[in-house]
Write a structure and sequence with these properties.
Layout (H helix, E strand, L loop, with lengths): L1 H5 L20 H19 L8 E8 L4 H7 L6 E7 L3 E8 L3 H11 L5 E6 L1
Antiparallel strand pairs: 1-3, 1-4, 2-3
């Protein structure tokens, strides 16, 4: 079972077997073949999803920069999580980890350096 899981190309996966009958009618090779085969069948029908590590980023911008900021978000697959309006606008974003550097650079360019990065969490 472990060999099948290690070579399936998936991460974060486990298989559990509960054996109620302790007989040896299949023999050791038969058990290996049966358990490995069942895991293989389960893997063939298992749904797959890509795990994307996302980072939170909080920025503060002036009101004139809001439109520029919102136009940039889809390019970097960033989601607007929350925004607070006060003297400035405090915006919480979440984007894939691989896009954080590019998003920061694009925000700096779009706001002509007026964006303030309050926090970044890896």
């Amino acid at each position: 079972m472990l060999t099948v899981l290690q070579h399936c190309g998936l991460g974060d996966i486990a298989a559990v077997v509960s054996r109620y009958y302790g007989g040896v009618k299949l023999g050791t090779g038969g058990l290996v073949k049966a358990y490995g085969g069942v895991v293989q069948l389960a893997l063939e029908s298992a749904p797959r999803a890509l795990h994307v590590v996302r980072c939170d980023l909080t920025v503060r911008v002036g009101y004139p920069a809001i439109d520029s900021l919102q136009h940039i978000l889809p390019t970097f697959e960033a989601d607007l999580v929350d925004q607070t309006f006060g003297v400035d606008v405090c915006i919480q974003l979440r984007c894939p980890e691989e896009h954080v550097v590019g998003l920061r650079r694009a925000l700096m360019d779009a706001t002509r350096g007026q964006v303030v990065f309050v926090s970044t969490e890896p």
